[in-house]
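Sample entry was shown:
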Amino acid sequence: MIKANITVDKDYTFSAIDPRVYGGFAEHLGRHIYTGIYEPGHPMADEQGWRTDVIDLVKALQMPIIRYPGGNFVSGYNWEDGVGPKADRPRRLEMAWGVTETNEVGTNEFMDWAKKVGTEPMMAVNLGTRGPANAQNLVEYCNHPGGSKYSDLRKSHGYADPHNVKVWCLGNEMDGPWQMGAKTAYEYGRIANESAKLMKWTDSRIETILCGSSARSMPSFGKWEWESLHECYDNVDYVSLHTYYANREKDFGSFFAEPDNMSDFIAETAALCDAVKAAKKSKKTINLSFDEWNVWYHSGDWNQNGERWDDVRPQLEDIYDMADVLVVGGMLLSMLEHADRLKIGCIAQIVNVIAPIMTVPGGGAWRQSTYWPLMHASVYGRGTALRAVVDAPLYDAKSRERVPTIKQQAVLSEDGSELTLFVINREPSGEQCELTLDLRSFGKLSPLSHTVIANPDMNAVNSLENPNNVAPSDVTLGQPDGGKLNVTLAGRSWNVIRFKLG
């Protein structure tokens, strides 16, 4: 058994947590939209065709924001195809994922679904095959109250009130050669600037997100941010980051360390933004949006089942296991470690496609293993992030040296009445941890709960038939003695430890 200590002081606050870090991403990809969230004729479908069983599962995640409609998809998307009478909407060859897009679901339908799941939309505009005028038209369609071509078009489609979309992505992964309309950093910075300018002239209340590097491993990382930001600094509010991690070699030590590499990626991107700020002698600070992140590797093949140009075919349907719980949980904690600059996060994606929720066409839905840390963080991780002092053993991995066996984040609730500690025991061999908590500065503490996700089989997964194989359970949390408490952490486990204050 390893031993570790965590000391948390109530005065060591460093940032309010923006709830939008617990957001999601819905793209027209695989079975996310069709037979995922939308399936007319399903026994659980509502009058609009939305699966109510999926709505319930998404609502429980309490996602404050969801990005739409892509992703690679958006770089070839004509938003006009997805509005108006469904019978008049064209069928299009969708180049990003090799299917035929029926356009049954579009902008207005997504706005309806967003309301049903209790979230705010985060829209992306096409800066791959289209440009500033098309982006401005979409903002006008969504946000202008009326009396203009596109706002009146929205009204004619049955939506009298504007959607008032606040956050807008200026394209997607424009540094990637896989992207339709990929650009150099200079080209992208120019078109992003002109698009954001027109979009903000249409609605001055909106915020815009510049595409940063598609991954830290991109050869252009750093240079891309530096060059593109120089062209559009005054008209953008966030820079995006994307990353996915894999464990193809079943090297758990390296896999569990990946969230620390994510933390470095965040710090480096913030530094790049600040370098441009200094170079431009600006008083404006650019914040960050990690609007694609997840574990992604199980499925391997992008084109699972079906033929090219099918209307719908399964793609990227990763089935997540116990090891993924620790990495997804660790990625959430890495974002909270940078709560002062990271204001938006979108797990990619929500349903069926590298997702915490899976469905069967015409059948049931279930929670994957990774659903649980996302839900716990979203529900209990709101308020103020606290700095903690951690003394824990270290281990070396291929992906990173001197990795702490304990990864944690402490959060003081918004009303100051509760303290939550998210703690991951990621000691690779699976040893338990005797953890000493020093919480003396908080005064009187009453234990609320200790929730654990642990399964000795790192390959354990959930399924429709066995939906709780990897699921949370509660263990007894002792009474602090003088503000100190000893807690036993299961080997390779995700832990949520909560106290009532006062």
About this structure: The radius of gyration is 23 Å. Residues 143 and 203 are 7 Å apart (CA to CA). Residues 252-280 form the longest helix (29 residues).
